[in-house]
Amino acid sequence: MLTAVLEPQPAVAPHPDIAHLAPLLGVWRGSGHGEYPTIEAFDYHEEIHFGHVGRPFLTYRQRTRHAEDGRSLHAETGYLRCAGPDRIELILAHPTGITEICEGSVDVADGGLRLELDSTHIGRTTTAKLVTALGRSIRLSGDTIDYTLRMAAAGQPKQHHLAASLRRAE
C-alpha cells in the first residue's frame, strides 16, 4: 500500500496573469465592525491569508472571531482570479451553506490596489440564510488592507454590513 506524502514545494513566482496582485500575498490581521438591520452591531478580529501555487489565481482564506469573547464568527475560503488586466473574479465558499461568485474591477495605482466586486451569483443550500447579493470594496495601500462588504439578506436591500482594517502580519 502506497501512502502519498505532501512535501513542501519550492517557492515559485506568481503566474504572470496575477503578478499585479502579488502585493496581496501573505497574512493580514486586524479588526472590524459589523452591523445590519436584523442583528446587533458587533466588533471582530480577522485574519486573511492570500497565497499562490504558481497558477493564474490567488488562494484566499479568511476567519473572524468576536472581539469580546473570542468565539468563531465566520469563515470563507476560495480563489481570486484575473479575467483580464483590469477585471477580477472572486469565488468563495462559506460554511453557512452559501457560495459566492463576484466579478468586478481591479485598479493598480500608486503602488496599491483597489478592487470593486459585486456578486453575479449566490448559491445556497436549503438551510442557508437567504442572502441574495453581496458587494466588496477592497483597498490595499502599503501594508494595510481596508475593506467594506455590502449585503442583501433576510428581505433587506443591499447595504453596508462590514468594515475592517488589516495590517500585514509577516
TrEMBL record:
Give the pathway annotation: Nitrogen metabolism
Its keywords, alphabetically, are:
Heme, Iron, Isomerase, Metal-binding
Q: Which GO terms describe its molecular function?
A: heme binding; metal ion binding; peroxynitrite isomerase activity
Return the CDD domains for the record.
Answer: lipocalin_heme-bd-THAP4-like
Superkingdom of origin organism: Bacteria
The cofactor binding remark recorded in the entry reads: Binds 1 heme b group per subunit, that coordinates a highly solvent-exposed Fe(III) atom.
Enzyme class, UniProt record, top EC level:
isomerase
Q: Catalytic activity, per the record?
A: peroxynitrite = nitrate
Q: Which InterPro entries match?
A: Calycin, Nb(III)_bact/plant, Nitrobindin, PeroxynitIsom, THAP4-like_heme-bd
* Residue ranges of the motif GXWXGXG: 26-32
Biological role = Heme-binding protein able to scavenge peroxynitrite and to protect free L-tyrosine against peroxynitrite-mediated nitration, by acting as a peroxynitrite isomerase that converts peroxynitrite to nitrate. Therefore, this protein likely plays a role in peroxynitrite sensing and in the detoxification of reactive nitrogen and oxygen species (RNS and ROS, respectively). Is able to bind nitric oxide (NO) in vitro, but may act as a sensor of peroxynitrite levels in vivo.
Q: What is this protein called?
A: Peroxynitrite isomerase
What is the source species?
Answer: Nocardia wallacei
